[in-house]
Amino acid sequence: MKIKKRDSTAVLNSLSGGVVPSRGLHHIMVGRTDEADQILQDLENTKKGSSIVKFFIGPFGSGKSFIQALIQQIAFNENFVVAKADFSPERRLYGSEGKAVAIYTELMKNLAIATKPDGSALGTILDKWISSVQTRVVQEKEYGSVEFDNPGFVKDVEKEITSIVSKMDDLTGGYDFSRILTIYFRGFIEDNSELQRSALRWLRGEYATKTEARKDLGVRDIIGDNNYYDYIKVMAKFVSQIGYAGLVINFDEAINLYKITHPQTREKNYETILKVYNDALQGNVEGLYITFGGTHEFLEDERKGLFSYGALKRRLESNKFETNEHRDLSQPVIKLTPLNHNDTFLLLTKLTEIHAAHYGYEPNVTKDEIASFLKAEYNRPGAEENLTVGDIIRNYLGALSIIHQHPDYNREEIFGNPTSEEVQPASKISSRFASLEDE
Questions:
Q1: How far apart are CA 436 and CA 374, in angstroms?
Q2: What angle, 0 to 180 degrees and rounded to 10, lies between the N-to-C axes of helices 174-189 and 151-165?
Q3: Which of 177, 173, 140 is nearest to 156 (CA)?
Q4: Percent of the chain whose predicted confidence (pLDDT) is above 70
Q5: How far apart are CA 246 and CA 138, in angstroms?
């Protein structure tokens, strides 16, 4: 297998630690081809100005975080800006004392692009944009080069920037957003890093008081609990204006909204989801693709879940003609199921090759041994209720590490004896993977 070292490092380290890798996902994607095709189609529509909201619903270990990581990787390839945030007791869609703006600040902190995939890309996005504007002005106005000491050049660049940011003035919050971008540019040309930091701080929603923002930047408003969603829409339009395909936002751990104990506060959070959903469907926002990752309880519990809010239940109920075999992936709710046994077998086969490529040895685990390992995992007490694919992966990578570092280790302690009659093709585990034997 050909795989970049940094990809194999990310895959092996992340999966061993129980988290989804941020890169190299295409090497381990199994059983999600239909979902990937739908994501690509949705992103194509978003590029053209649509906005889409999707809910990926499934039990713990069904692959919700993997799907959102896959969305991020596909979005990078399609030139989107991507942000992600997990809901928590201190980060919500609606709340007071900074709990709502905290989700916005988390999104801005994790803002990422293909060349800066790990977040903190807001400054990079602005600097790249300003540099591209300068280059365009140099070419169109026939300056010899970037001339910060030439007032005429600076004025021409300011005009170009103003012509772009003024297009957001019709959006709520657009005027203040535009002013901050102009201030950031002033810090850029004056090499005033303090002014740039203050502008970024404002854009990330980190000012707690209007007084402090006015003192640092001369603006009267700040991004807070009551208006942060307006600035998500402004940001989506801005990144589209400066050459990106749009903005992708992944919200995970939506179960934490379900767990809000105060009924009115929980309902207000669901009301915000309804507003986001309606804005997308009614064309009130452009170039925005938002996903929520949550459990069946979060969606379907009619006492505390989204279905407790009548308007959301009507919008999010599944297509009644859908079956496990014939799924409708175009609808807003996509219900995920854990990988089946065949797909898990194929995944472990891929991980065997990745581990060997990473450490520079020929793969030495047979398919019979992988099948025997899986049989033992699935036969563990309580496996049917509690075992997840993530558990199997961590155990398997641990096994690979042991036999690689200790070639004299008794393999039968890990794989049993797959050549015995107990695991011959007539057994359940062998027949379960028979369709993959020739792959």
A1: 14
A2: 160
A3: 140
A4: 95
A5: 27
- Residue 439 CB neighbours (<10 A): 9
CB distance 30 to 343 below 8 Å: yes
Per the CB < 8 A criterion, the answer to whether 13 and 393 are in contact is no
Residue 337 dihedral angles phi and psi, to the nearest 5°: -120, 150
Beta strands in 288-350 (DSSP E): 288-294, 333-335
Model pLDDT, residue 330: 92
Q: How many residues does the chain have?
A: 439
Q: Report whether pLDDT(192) > 60.
A: yes
Count CB-CB contacts under 10 A for residue 369.
Answer: 23
Q: Which residues pair with 52 in a beta bridge?
A: 289
Q: Max alpha carbon distance in the chain (Å)?
A: 85
Ramachandran sector of residue 243 (left: φ over 0; alpha: ψ -120 to 50; beta: rest): left
Q: What six digits make up the tokens of 416?
A: 């049993």
d(CA 166, CA 147) in angstroms, rounded, equals 24
Res. 61 pLDDT band, cuts 50 70 90: confident
Residue 232 φ/ψ, nearest 5 degrees:
-65, -45
- 49 — alpha (psi -120 to 50), left (phi > 0) or beta? left
Tokens standing for 423? 């695991």
The H or E element that residue 252 is part of is: strand 247-252
The string of pLDDT tens digits covering residues 330-364 is 999 999 988 889 999 999 999 999 999 999 999 99
Please tell me whether residue 116 adopts helix, strand or coil conformation: strand
pLDDT above 60: residue 162? yes
> Taking the model in full, what pTM does it have?
0.87
Q: Residue 29 CA to chain centroid, in angstroms?
A: 16
Which residue type sits at 206? E
Helix 341-359 × helix 389-405 angle, to 10°: 30
pLDDT of residue 339: 86
Helix 389-405 vs helix 5-16: crossing angle, to nearest 10: 120
Distance CA 10, CA 70 (A): 14
Alpha-carbon distance of 358 to 356, in angstroms, equals 5
Distance (Å, whole) CA 154 – CA 351: 54
CA-to-CA distance for 248 and 308, rounded, in angstroms? 27
8 Å CB contact between 292 and 254:
yes
